[in-house]
Amino acid sequence: MDGRILTALGNDGRRSYAEVGNEVGLSTAAVHERVKKMLERGVIRRFSISVDPDSVGLGFTAFVAIRNDGGAHCREVAPRLREMTAVQELHSVAGEYDFLAKIRTHHARELEAVLYQIKSIPGVARTTSTVVLNTEFEDQPLRPIAA
Amino acid sequence: MDGRILTALGNDGRRSYAEVGNEVGLSTAAVHERVKKMLERGVIRRFSISVDPDSVGLGFTAFVAIRNDGGAHCREVAPRLREMTAVQELHSVAGEYDFLAKIRTHHARELEAVLYQIKSIPGVARTTSTVVLNTEFEDQPLRPIAA
DNA sequence: TGTGAAATTGATCCACA
DNA sequence: TGTGGATCAATTTCACA
Fold first, then answer.
1. Which domains does chain A have, with CATH numbers?
2. In contact, B141 and B10? CB cutoff 8 Å
3. What is the pLDDT of residues A11-29, one digit of tens each?
4. CB burial class (10 A; 0-12, 13-18, 19+) of residue B88?
5. Whole-number distance in Å between B127 CA and D14 C1'
6. What DSSP line would sit under A4-44, residue for residue?
7. Are the Cβ atoms of A44 and B50 closer than 8 angstroms?
8. Given A43, A74, A97, B112, which residue has the most CB atoms within 10 angstroms?
9. Residues of A in contact with B64 (CB under 8 A)
């Protein structure tokens, strides 16, 4: 039941609880109760809006793989990357590289500046960038009851 | 001004227009007007909720690079990937591979099934997977006025 | 956990600067 | 494009099954 509520809200977080309740067969108050509990449990992290990156000038996307050296500074790499507004996602990954970062900038030239900034972080050995030509889709709402 | 409204709403899409207006120095009605226009222009794509993937059992993430063969089926690859619920993002990229997909499944074993599905799409030549060990952060709200 | 109804708060509309 | 006030619709609370 919670899964169906998340799906209903995921597609449009503004949909009223009455409408959602109608869809899943619960009263307004019951939906409210469940949403409140999911917020408490951390299932719902926050309500948000989906902004079109192009519209705000952030039309350039790249994935940057980052390799650490073996030094003592490795623990500090992630916090430093978190401070950079261009870094929208950061994953610790298995394989040849240690991190995979999703970067969004205004244009290609700005990526160069971001890469210099990343390379200047103590502990970073090298980076490899994959430039996005076109984002087919993203923002796909999480479907809890995946097939 | 719109940028500040997006930032205020991006951190919590449920924040009231009165509160947002207070923050940016506008009346409730003015914020409402601007949000309406941003919805019309497509700057705001939709209101949504941020769901914690682990909480709904989708605790396994991987990035899969996909290489097309040169055949006639290449145009059909993206639409087919869009239909797969496990594929949360799909980017057309420059370099050795043609697509980069963000995949979310319940566990590693399920990724295997997803990979078989992807490899069975006509036009797909080969894939390379990068397994996520830990997501440091994602869901970073878009900061329109990036430094 | 659920319900329906009451109370409260917020979104939306309007006349006007 | 903005404002303040009226109206309408939503969330939130409550007594109770």
1. 2-41 (1.10.10.10), 53-131 (3.30.70.920)
2. yes
3. 888 899 999 999 999 999 9
4. buried
5. 57
6. HHHHHHHH-TTS-HHHHHHHHT--HHHHHHHHHHHHHHTSE
7. yes
8. A43
9. none
